[in-house]
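Sample intake sheet
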Amino acid sequence: MTKLRAQISGINGFVPDYVLTNKELETIVDTTDDWITSRTGIKERRILKGEDQGTSVLGINAVNGLLEKTGTKAEEVDLIICATTTPDMLFPATANIIADAVGAKNAFGYDLQAACSGFLYALTTGSQFIETGKYKKVVVVGADKMSSIIDYSDRTTCIIFGDGGGAVLLEPTTEDVGIMDAILHSDGSGAKHLHMKAGGSRRPATADTVANKEHYVYQEGSAVFKFAVTNMADVAVEIMERNDLSGDDIKYLVPHQANKRIIDATANRMEVGEEKVMLNIHRYGNTTSGTIPLCLWDYESELRKGDNLILAAFGGGFTWGSVYIKWAYDPK
């Protein structure tokens, strides 16, 4: 029996218009452009401004563009999965808000939260619905409005994050392309190093939690960096070895855009040169669930059918993973 795989048949991204540069951050916190660039590789990031502008705005724009590019009718979509750490609200799911706004009336949807690994988790989950033959068109969104949970008086975190997102269309194929393999991990013992202290059921919002700035990202940078460098590189190499791939076989490493030094360490372990690394951290910063689809969107014109891509990410929780994809189409 011919194996059914999930192929990415289209990709689209969206970032807000407002550009927050390192120079502007110099006027907000005690930092410099040189300090930020040398430690992270980030030069600017996009920020979603305005009232009632949540993560769904990023997702709606990404999905509308995706449907137009692929010639897909909204009512043909079976499922929308939204990977996000910053949902519009605890409920309903941001995926459902997106579905309603784009007119996907026949789709069910839900959110998936795995921090910066969220898109890989959602992509792998969505592929299962395709591989079983249950559904024909699954949209996977990765989007975050990180500016909504960042303390702009904390120079250790406000320099890193931005807002943005992307969406892919998954469809079935019997060709030797698509999502070939995935390795996903998590370790809850890492939660103490990267989390948000309040706002959940353990510590609901109170006047004190707000006053104490407990609704912002808390990160122990050195500990997170150490775990990320090791685990993101390890899992990328593991998936290559499991599929008998060498650095020469890889068209691109598609890494989560958290820190240029983490990306470089992963590429070195994989033995791929800089020319094989998708990089846009300098333009967008860390958009959490949005980084990998934004990379694919930025580099789409350079991809060819059959290209081997290794996606890799590490996030709070801790979560990490890697996905091996054979690209399914030539530039359109």
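Comment: The chain is about 30% helix and 25% strand. The first helix runs from residue 22 to 26.
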